[in-house]
Amino acid sequence: MIQYLNNNSAVVLDALQQHIWLALLPVLLGFAIALPLGYLGVRFTWLYHPLVNTSGVLYSIPSLALFVFLPVLLGTKVLSPINIVVALTIYTVALLARTVADGLRSVDPTVTQAATAMGYRRFRRLIDVELPVALPVILAGLRVATVANISLVSVGALIGVGGLGQLFTRGFQLFYLEPILVGIILSVALAGIADLVIVLIQRAVTPWARFQRGGTA
Amino acid sequence: MITFDDVVKVYPGGSTAVDHLTVELPTGKLTALVGPSGCGKTTSLRMINRMVRPTSGRVLIDGEDVAGQDEAKLRRGIGYVIQHAGLFPHRTVLDNVATVPVLLGKTRREARAAAIGLLERVGLSEEFAKRYPAQLSGGQQQRVGVARALAADPPVMLMDEPFSAVDPVVRGQLHAEFLRLQQDLGKTIALVTHDIDEAIKLGDRVAVLRQGGILAQFGTPQDLLTKPADDFVAEFVGRDRGLRSLSFDSAAALPVRPPAEAPDLVLDDAGRPVAWRSVGDLGGVFQVTDSLRVVTDLAISSPVGIAVRVDADGRADGIVSHHDLADHLVARRRESASA
Ligand SMILES: Nc1ncnc2c1ncn2[C@@H]1O[C@H](COP(=O)(O)OP(=O)(O)OP(=O)(O)O)[C@@H](O)[C@H]1O
Ligand SMILES: [Mg+2]
Known about the structure:
Shape of chain B: globular
Distance between the termini of chain A: 38 Å
Distance between the termini of chain B: 26 Å
CATH superfamily of chain A: MetI-like
Oligomer: heterodimer
Strand order of the largest sheet of chain B: 6-7-8-3-9-10
Mean pLDDT of chain A: 89
Largest interface: A-B, 24 and 29 residues
Order of helices and strands of chain A: HHHHHHHH
Number of helices of chain A: 8
CATH topology of the largest domain in chain B: Rossmann fold
Low-confidence stretches of chain A: none
Radius of gyration of chain A: 20 Å
Shape of chain A: elongated
Number of helices of chain B: 13
Largest sheet of chain A: none
CATH superfamily of the largest domain in chain B: P-loop containing nucleotide triphosphate hydrolases
Largest sheet of chain B: 6 strands, mixed
Mean pLDDT of chain B: 92
Radius of gyration of chain B: 24 Å
Structural class of chain B: alpha/beta
Number of domains of chain B: 2
CATH architecture of the largest domain in chain B: 3-Layer(aba) Sandwich
Helix content of chain A: over 70%
Number of domains of chain A: 1
Strand content of chain A: under 5%
Strand content of chain B: 15-25%
Low-confidence stretches of chain B: none
Bound molecules: adenosine-5'-triphosphate, magnesium ion
C-alpha cells in the first residue's frame, strides 16, 4: 500500500482534494439556503409541516437516482461535478432546514419573550439570542450533513465523477486491492476529521451548552 | 404613574382576559397585582410594555399613551423580570445583566463594569459574574433576573412572579432584600403574584383580580385585610386577616403604663428588664417601631400577660397588658370604621 501511495501520490492527492470540496461546498451552500428556510418554517407556523414533509421526501430520494436525473433536469453534462454539488446541496438543505427550524423551536419561549421585553427588535433578537441558543442543535445537524456528504461523494464515482470513489472504481476495474483500501481509509479518515473539527468548533462557540441540563453537548 | 383607562383584552378565540380595568399605579410605589391563575395578571402587565395590545381602552405611563410609542424603545426604558427568570442561557451572568445597556448603545466594557455593581446590589458576589445561568440555583437565577431588569436604571419595573420558583425560606430572604432595594430606589413597580401573602408583604398597593379579569379590589394591604370589598376578596385574603392586619399598625400609638406599675418586673442597674420575679423568663420586649402584631404576640405568650416596651438603649419604658391591648384594638376598630 505504501508502494501504491508512493507511485500514485499525485492521483490520490488529487482525488482527496476533489473529494473535500465536492463534499464541503454543498454543506456551505446548503446551510446558507437552509438557514432562511428554517427560519421561515418557525416564523410562519403553517409552513413548518410542509417544510418537514418536503425535506423528508427529498432526503429519501436515492442518491444514485438523483445523480443520474439531475443532468436531465439541469441540462448539465453527465460527468459534470455540478451534478454532485447540486444533489448534495439538496440533501443538505433537506436535512438542515428542518434542523434549523427545530433548533429555533427548541428555544425556550420564556427566553424569547424576555428578549422582546428587554427591547430587542425581531432581527437582532434572531441574531443575538435565538440563533446562538439554537446553535447546539444546528451544529449537531451540520455534523450529520457533513459526514453524510463525505460518504455520498464516493457514490458519485459510479457515474464517473470524482473524489476518492474514483479509487474504488479503478481498483475494481483492475482487480487491484490497494486503491480500494486507500480510498476507504482516506474517506473514513476524512469523515472522522471533519466530525472532530465540527465538535471542536461546537465546544468553542457554545461553551455554555456543557452546563445545560439535558443539553445536546 | 401607570394608568389603566377602561382597558379590555379579549384574546382571539373569545376568552376575556382583562375586563374594563381602570386603575392607577402610583409613582415610586410597588403595586401588587394578585389573583387566581388565569385571571389576567400577566396580560395586564404585558399591556404596559406593549407585548400585548389592549382590545380597547388605553394604558398610559406618566400620562403618555404607550400605544403611540416605539415598542423597542419603550421596552428598553421599562425593566422586566419575567416568570422563571428567563435568563439567556448562552450568556454569562455578567452579560445577561449588561443586556439592556448594550442595546441602548453602551459599550460592552462599560455595561459589564456597571453590571458588577448591580450583581452586588442583588446579593451576588463577583464569582458568579463569569458563570452561565445553568450553573446557578433557582434563587440565584431570580436575583440575576432582577439585576438584569435594573441594569438601565429604568423608572418603571414590571415583575411577573419574580420570586415564585424558590422555596419559602429563600423567598423570604429575597423579599427582605428586595424591600431594602426598593426603599433605596423608589421605582414605580407593577408586581404580579398569585400569592396574597407576598402581595401584602411587598405591595404599597394591592390590586386583587378575579376570574375573567375583573378588578375585585384596589387599596392598601391594610384595606384588604380590614375592609375586604366582598366575599371573594375576604376568602382570597384568607383567615386570620385580623391578626395579619396588625402587622401594618405601629405600636407608637399604643398607650403604655409606667414600668413601676408592674412590681414583678426585675430590672438591672441600667433599668433594662431582666425577668419576671415570679416566673422567670421575660419572653421578649418591643420598641415603638414594632408593629401591633409583635406586641400582641408578646402579650399572649408572656407568662404574666404583659408585654414590656424598651427604648433604643434597651431600658424598660413602658408596659402593656392584655386588657390595655384589647382596649386599644377596640378603639382602633371604632376609628377605622368611622374613617
Ligand atoms: N396568547 C393567548 N391567546 C389566547 N388566550 C390567552 C393568551 N394568553 C393568555 N390567554 C388567556 O387569558 C387569560 C388570562 O391569562 P394570563 O396569562 O394573563 O393569566 P395570569 O393571571 O397571568 O395566570 P397565571 O397566574 O396562571 O400566570 C387566561 O384564561 C388565558 O388562558
Ligand atoms: Mg401569569
